[in-house]
Amino acid sequence: MAGLGRQEEARCSLGLEPMDGPGTLTWEEFLDNAERFLATSDEMSDGWELRGDKDIPGQAYLVRRVKYFVPSNSIAGEDDDDAEEFDVKLREDPHEAPTAGEAPFITEHHILWSISYGVPVLFFNGWKSDFPGINPVSVDEAQTVHGSKLNYAELSQAIHPIIGTPFLQLHPCLSQGLLRTMSKSKNKLVSWLSCVAFAALNLKIRPEYFKLTH
């Protein structure tokens, strides 16, 4: 897919089947799953939106931006010897001011469909500030959640294939294997997202979405 380098494409191609084989989603399935997901989000005011052109395969995507507050010591500068590892212990309440010892933290998650592999793909960014684009989270920081390395080798920075700006990306290498285990799910997008969300700055999926899978 767009945004992967040649080395990553070669690694991801190992074990991946054609985009219409087992463990894949068609564009129509992705769009149907995404719209059902969006309807549930709207019911809960959870903040997800569908952007782009639904009439062109791969050109529409789900997006959600959230402002949190995190412990200040988790976003100290790289030169601060007393700084802890990046810690995503989030308190979501954008209408309140940070308390003592807290700092603002913004995350943005995009769920796309890969036309090359026929699987959903998660792109995301995080900014340790009040404003998107300022003080972004690095790849190394994004791999560290609650002080533990994810060891998710497929996480790297890539160019967003639709809007053309740098994002962190969970490569689609493992997605076909995950989707094969979800053949009975009524919403494979939700089932897949529940498996990979933790690796994307600890994205939380509310339990109401899982009703879509039954």
UniProtKB/TrEMBL annotation:
GO terms for molecular function: Atg12 conjugating enzyme activity. GO terms for cellular component: cytosol. Coiled coil: none annotated. GO terms for biological process: autophagosome assembly; autophagy of mitochondrion; protein modification by small protein conjugation. It comes from the Eukaryota. The keyword Transferase applies. Gene3D superfamilies: 3.30.1460.50. Keywords: Autophagy, Transferase, Ubl conjugation pathway. PANTHER family: UBIQUITIN-LIKE-CONJUGATING ENZYME ATG10. This is Ubiquitin-like-conjugating enzyme ATG10. It comes from Cardiocondyla obscurior.
